[in-house]
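User: Fold this; tokens only.

Assistant: Input:
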Amino acid sequence: MATATFQVGNTYKMLWIGDADAVTLCKVVKRTAKFVTVDVDGFGVKRVAVKPCDQGESCLPLGSYSMAPCLKAIREVA
């Protein structure tokens, strides 16, 4: 089974912990081996480190705090 990775030009869903219906779209602008630059709707362009997770890759574009929304590569928008 292949793991999901962030690809330049693709759009992904970022989910919020506090509200299951809240979804923010993020488009990958640039990608390196360890970092991804995403354009987050309503928040602008953010450059963040990519972390491995059990289903592929993930990152925290809005910071690392208790209720921070998570962006995962498996949540690609078709």
